[in-house]
Amino acid sequence: MQRGVQQRMINFGSVSNTAWSRFSSSVRARTNLAQVLHDVRADAALTFDWVFLLLVAAFVAAIGLVENSTVIIVASMLISPLMGPITAGTLGTAVKDRSLQLMGVKNEFLGLFLSLVMGFLFGLTICAIDERYGVAVFYSRCKTSLYGLNGSRVALQWRWPCLGSITSLSE
Questions:
Q1: Whole-structure pTM over 0.70, yes or no?
Q2: Which residues contact 104 (CB under 8 A, 6 or more apart)?
Q3: Cβ 37 vs Cβ 100: under 8 Å
Q4: Are 41 and 100 in contact (CB under 8 A)?
Q5: Where are its TM segments located (predicted)?
Q6: What's the domain range around 5?
Q7: How many independent structural domains does the chain possess?
Q8: Residues 3 and 55 both lie in one domain
Q9: Using DSSP, how many helices (H) and how many strands (E) does the chain show?
């Protein structure tokens, strides 16, 4: 009986070397983790090109906000290189690579800071040059409502069920 099982395994082994090996080689990952980490690190690195693209994207976004054009704002998102540091921070957290994680977080905050500074300078410049882009356009973008507070009520109620009697703020 032992010999029959062994013979079947040998036959199965010869079959697996043909069809199964071709199938498994086609399913394997095309790149290994080291190559992915290298590419992500290169995309998140702080270079002249990265900073230049970030400033161009912030400028395009500022023009889109002033002109009230959603298409221009979306175009600025396509130009922006901020996805590289986000990917680095996320992948660094997933694979427990502390240096990649810190590089991603640091460069993301630097990119956000540079975008805010660029937007602030653009806002000061455009308000000083042209009166029609004055306070009304910016106030129209700062409409406040209580719906955000209603969402926080739901979060608090989910965390502490005893707060179920809190009435909704939007009613």
A1: no
A2: 44, 84, 85, 86, 87, 88, 89, 90, 91, 92
A3: yes
A4: yes
A5: 46-66, 72-95, 107-126
A6: 1-30
A7: 3
A8: no
A9: 9, 0
